[in-house]
């Protein structure tokens, strides 16, 4: 395995249309990124993989899409208005900004080298503030949500009353969140605008210790099924200094990113703090009446919270490889699981003439009914294979002169580069079976 660096990931993302710097022609905007043709497919595939896992495959979880803008009292109840801050210092010389808890204030500025140039630490609220309506005074203040979880909590009773769900049950949501990060770094790992995939599981007090390990197991298994190498994943339990005051227990799934082990997803036992807070601040009852026992209680919550954008970076980092297939001949390849690969199948006519192009176009249209397909007729066939390897396409179908004789095509496999002849009539079914049976080769 070649060393995977962030520079290699960033270069590939720009070169192959995965991720671009936002507003690049104007010099870019720090902490904001655009997802290109390949990137949006990868992100959507990961999103859909998670959504199916959480809702379709679990009969005790329902979905929600809450508004980004919420009543400002929501963020008072959650503690974000008063507590969602980071200590910040500025360098008086170069004006660079740093988190005070992540820098040695007795050392020189890491940007300009000036010593003793830091301002006194001051709190910096991470929420983006805006205004709604014609006035721009304190009565019109709203916030761009810094997390998606609160939308689930404030809609808890609406879901219970309208969906006939019974505790224990979960509410899943995928959506954008915004944080005015002091420092954005490591590409899309930490940005001001990002997407989260969260599920809040509501359970009877006293049963949270049963559900907490269950969801830990479910969430780790999710990444294995997505094709991520197990050796690149690990658990980190929050110690006393890390644990939120309302949390009973918390674990992070960490991934070995190019910059080291970092948080990918959190699984938290949050007690009844959130619903209790919203009951207090709203004055509306948030308790649940058990229809079988007539017990009334405020449910406890086990939360799973993953970053969709971090999942994209994880998938790119885990899949990236450089293979020397002959002396001096190195190919760059992304070993995505077919379920999340941006393009599932590439259709390639060997040449543009003699009817091969027309045959390939017809086949491509047929395959588009079931798969995301890329049609490429430009350049030598070997070069086209390499282009597909770089975007992680698991299967290439080549239409050649033999195709015109016996209606068979060449099916090429990305990971092994093996090629087999397959009847055109069965190509869609063969690809479907290959996707179902896919196992990532050892060492790739």
Short descriptors:
ligase; Glycine--tRNA ligase; seven-stranded mixed beta sheet; alpha+beta; 30% helix; 444 residues; Rossmann fold; Anticodon-bd; 13 helices; five-stranded mixed beta sheet; BirA Bifunctional Protein, domain 2; 23 strands
Q: What does it look like?
A:
The protein is α+β, with helices and mostly antiparallel strands. The chain has 2 domains: 6-84 and 126-316, Bira Bifunctional Protein, Domain 2 (BirA Bifunctional Protein, domain 2, 2-Layer Sandwich); 343-437, Anticodon-binding domain (Rossmann fold). The chain is 30% helix and 28% strand. It is built from 13 helices and 23 strands. It has helices spanning 6-15, 37-56, 72-77, 80-83, 149-154, 156-163, 208-225, 273-282, 308-319, 356-367, 381-391, 401-406, 427-437, and strands at 19-21, 33-35, 61-63, 85-90, 97-99, 122-125, 128-131, 141-144, 169-178, 193-203, 233-237, 249-257, 260-271, 288-289, 296-297, 300-307, 320-326, 329-334, 345-349, 373-375, 395-399, 408-413, 419-423. It has a 7-stranded mixed sheet, with helices on both faces. Strands 20-19-21-22-23 form a 5-stranded mixed sheet, sandwiched between helices. Strands 5-4-6 form a 3-stranded antiparallel sheet. α10 links the parallel β19 and β20. α2 (37-56) packs across α9 (308-319). The termini are close together. The mean pLDDT is 93. Catalyzes the attachment of glycine to tRNA(Gly). Keywords: Aminoacyl-tRNA synthetase, ATP-binding, Cytoplasm, Ligase, Nucleotide-binding, Protein biosynthesis. Belongs to the class-II aminoacyl-tRNA synthetase family. Its main location: cytoplasm. This is Glycine--tRNA ligase.
